Each structure stands twice: as C-alpha cells, then as structure tokens.
Amino acid sequence: MLFFVAKLAPGFFRDRKAKMPAEAWISTKGLIYEGAVYPYSGFLYGFTGLSYRDGTEPALVLSFYQITGARIYDPFEIAVPVPKGEEEKAKEIPAQLGF
To answer: What is the helix (H) or strand (E) element at residue 17, kind and residue range?
Structure first.
C-alpha cells in the first residue's frame, strides 16, 4: 500500500498544482512567483527592470540577470500574468518600485 501511495501521490499533487492559478507576491525586496523566490539583489544575481506589457494577456515583466561565469551574464525575464480587472493596479507597480 505504501508503494502505491509513494508512486501516486506526487503525480496527484503535481496535476492539482498545474490546474491552480499561478500566485505571485511582488514587494520592494523581491518576487515570489509559483513558489520560487527571486530577490532583487543577491550573490551573482541582479534585477534590471520592471515593465507592464499590455495586449491580449497583460503581464508584468521582470528582468533579471545571473552571472554564470567570469563576466558571462545570463539575462532572463519572468512574465507575471495580470488577472482581469487588476490592470490599473498592475500599471502602478513599476512606478511604485521606481521603474
């Protein structure tokens, strides 16, 4: 019985999590998105900007870089979807954080 629980439980929780809407917390210190923490400054890690992207699926786009080697910067972006009706609040966030 423990074998079946050990094999079935991870898949059940993974599928359940995939069906849930993504959650994001944006603060002056960093971002928590889908359970991952992205601080605005850290060891070999930095935050370069924040913008609001309008369109069919509005999103807040956070730009980061990570130093992966001697003077090798690996930029990446995280697009946080904006729920319907929250567009005006989302447009204010870059100004509140100084971008």
So the answer is: helix 2-19
